Amino acid sequence: MTIYFKNAYIKNAYSVVGRNEYDISIKGDLHINDYYLSKKSFEQGESELLIKSISGLLSKCKKKETDIDVALSGDLQSQILASTLAYRNFSIPFLGLYSACATFCEGLIIGSNLLENKGINNIIISTSANNLASEKQFRFPIEYGAIRKYVNTFTATAAVSTLLTKEKTEIKIESATIGTVVDIGYNDANNFGAVMALSASKTISEHLKETNRSSEYYDIILTGDLGVYGVEILKELLRNEYKINATNIVDAGSILLKDTSVVAGGSGPVCLPLILFNKILKEKYKKILLVATGALHSKTSVNLKESIPNISHVVSLEVL
Amino acid sequence: MTIYFKNAYIKNAYSVVGRNEYDISIKGDLHINDYYLSKKSFEQGESELLIKSISGLLSKCKKKETDIDVALSGDLQSQILASTLAYRNFSIPFLGLYSACATFCEGLIIGSNLLENKGINNIIISTSANNLASEKQFRFPIEYGAIRKYVNTFTATAAVSTLLTKEKTEIKIESATIGTVVDIGYNDANNFGAVMALSASKTISEHLKETNRSSEYYDIILTGDLGVYGVEILKELLRNEYKINATNIVDAGSILLKDTSVVAGGSGPVCLPLILFNKILKEKYKKILLVATGALHSKTSVNLKESIPNISHVVSLEVL
């Protein structure tokens, strides 16, 4: 389902980057060393990350809370707690999203569409994750010392807030393809790349077909976050199932944390915007296809041995 | 933040109603007696409720999956599991929402706005709850026999799916006011009515001010779900804080389950659409203000003794 936008532009972004995520190429706007951010839990710490990214964005754009018409936010915590605890500090109309690691693109899609309404001019899209909150929620608290598989990704600790506006800027949101929920019957919560490659291949091929474009139309196709192994499965699926030989696919998770001991790379909803704003948009790409991939499981579904539904949303950016 | 819609109409709805929720006035389209729906968990049972409401809606409207451009869905389960497990069975582009019991109005708002895009014509908004999944998630599994307070509401077991369309029907979605997250510092997860009355009063007063309407402009103001005590707190807040004497407020939760042993009434995201489609729209109201109220807590925030952020979204319907 591909839709086109007339009035949607990205004005700015503010990234708060965690202890392990900060490196030479990913500096972000603010570097935080403490997973707790002086709070008593990782969950509340994540909310603080988000608060800092929202406040940071407002002051970077010289906007007041009252200048923002709507905020869209989501995260990995149950009942998107990080987002709701953060946004109670801001007097900004709020719509909560849940799309796991595909949240950033879901936000861009709904936000770009909200800008079609003449009453709406400025929108914040935000997302966050705290590695230690996510690991507890989806796998094991790290102090359990559970053995990690080589296909395990590492949820990036960060928060990114983005300002969308009708005002023409250098970054236009041109079109988007909304994904469907798919499920191959695979239930390994330690191998999200393999789980999510299916929906990524499906939405990318739909996007290219519906826009009548080839993969070379884009200077870069940025997935987030399949990890080192998942992105190879995606390329194979595109080649074998859809006859698409995309040599320009780069995975945000495979860029983030690539020099650390994390074998399969970074993951989480912030992975894609973190790499987009702090690396990709600083390079000379003109046409960028964002592919946000999400594994739609929960602790309950893992315990029920349910297979993992997954979804990918695609957004086309034009750098003017 | 009030926005207006030009092209948004409700075409139809399909309600699947649980064991205790079915009564003389609330028949719904399908009555289900089993909390499990032959699945092995309440969570998967809830997903089945949702599947039945989506399939039911499609056949009631004589639509195929491919006729639907987007589905928006959310529920109370962590990581909106009921919605994602349900929608993996449908080839419909999907956007996940989380706004607790305010989800139905959030869906109407985002959905009505998506209809402004010329590529989008038909949207499904759905939501669900299973009492036994929610009680486990937010309070105690009922077999623990924890004592309930007299202000406790009872999460309604049901699923409702609604078809939104550009095609002119009798029910027009005229405008909406998007709420902000507020928090009075109150943390009693057994008294949601008291928690949510604050945001309800705030968004209602904003809506009336921004549209330059008095409360009498509406034939009925339907809140969902403050319960028997919460709705009285709302009336008092409107009177004392905003000088609004609204005599036409009726609470969906106070209508649902009112003849049972549940003291404070029904609650949950389906409460509002269930009463709207099965009772209010069958009566002679012409101007209806929907006020969906949501408590934005989680099991984690309750254990952290965090106060409960809350949000209310308001939607104005005109019956033509």
Please state the oligomeric state of the protein chains shown.
Answer: homodimer
Whole-number count of domains of chain A: 2
Strand proportion of chain A: 15-25%
Low-confidence stretches of chain A: none
Compute the number of strand runs of chain A.
14
Q: What are the secondary-structure elements of chain A, in order, as H or E?
A: EEEHEHEHEHEEEHEHEHEHEHE
| Most extensive chain interface and residues per partner | A-B, 58 and 58 residues
- State the secondary-structure class of chain A: alpha/beta
Classify the helix fraction of chain A into a percent range.
25-40%
Give a short synopsis of this structure.
By secondary structure, chain A is α/β, with parallel strands linked by helices.
3D architecture notes:
The structure is a homodimer. Chain A is α/β, with parallel strands linked by helices and about 325 residues long. Chain A folds into two domains: about 1-165, Peroxisomal Thiolase, Chain A, domain 1 (3-Layer(aba) Sandwich); about 170-320, 3-Layer(aba) Sandwich (Peroxisomal Thiolase, Chain A, domain 1). Chain A contains nine helices and 14 strands. Chain A has helices at about 40-60, 80-85, 105-115, 130-140, 190-210, 225-240, 250-255, 270-280, 300-305, and strands at about 1-5, 10-15, 30, 70-75, 95, 120-130, 155, 160-165, 170-175, 220-225, 250, 265, 285-295, 310-320. In chain A, strands 1, 2, 3, 4, 5, 6, 8, 9, 10, 11, 13 and 14 form a twelve-stranded mixed β-sheet that branches. In chain A, strands 7-12 form a two-stranded parallel sheet. In chain A, α1 (about 40-60) crosses α2 (about 80-85). Chain A is globular. The mean pLDDT of chain A is about 95. Chains A and B meet through β1, α2, β5, α3 and α9 of A and β1, α2, β5, α3 and α9 of B.
